[in-house]
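Tip: read the tokens left to right.
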């Protein structure tokens, strides 16, 4: 898909294996923008495995400067979740980033529109993502396209040692080869 907005031209396409280095550079730029560069430890190999390995867990769309350019100016990385309440899968946007020099020209909107198209085409009941509470420009942008920022939900996260500590409390079910779990008394 090629789009021209505010006299700027760009194109959006599904990412391919050839885009890994560019995607990873954009992920690093996003981490710096979000003030999270110190915890961004993913590698190009991690990203390649997640998107194109034997068991892909995510997909990505990439924005390029124009139909002839290979310059990457933004991306969206997403995957499916499932809503038990709706009985349908959902599309979760993990990351959306447009280089600062290319903001305001419709690139972010076009990336979101391409994902909304996929969500609709795939029968998703929801298209969701999170936004940092201090990122007022993003919040205003999302509300401007019709999204609702849910003030009554909070993200809950376990990492590293906390995952291991909770996992150690799991009780393997007898005879399941460690694959099943039983209720604790």
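Filled-in amino acids:
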């Amino acid at each position: 898909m090629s789009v021209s907005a505010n006299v700027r031209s760009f194109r959006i396409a599904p990412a391919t294996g050839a885009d890994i280095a560019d995607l990873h550079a954009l992920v690093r730029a996003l981490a710096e923008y979000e003030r999270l560069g110190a915890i961004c430890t993913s590698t190009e190999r991690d990203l390649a495995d997640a998107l194109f390995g034997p068991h892909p867990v995510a997909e990505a769309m990439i924005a390029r400067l124009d139909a002839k350019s290979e310059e990457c100016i933004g991306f969206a990385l997403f995957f499916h979740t499932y809503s038990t309440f709706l009985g349908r899968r959902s599309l979760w946007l993990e990351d959306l980033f447009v280089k600062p020099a290319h903001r305001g020209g419709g690139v972010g909107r076009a990336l979101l529109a391409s994902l909304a198209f996929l969500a609709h085409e795939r029968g998703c009941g929801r298209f969701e993502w999170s936004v940092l509470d201090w990122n007022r420009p993003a919040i205003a942008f999302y509300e401007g396209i019709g999204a609702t920022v849910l003030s009554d939900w909070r993200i809950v996260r376990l990492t590293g040692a906390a995952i291991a500590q909770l996992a150690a409390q799991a009780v393997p079910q007898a005879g399941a080869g460690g694959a099943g779990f039983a209720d604790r008394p």
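Strands lie at 2-5, 8-14, 59-64, 72-83, 88-98, 126-129. Residues 76 and 163 are 27 Å apart (CA to CA).
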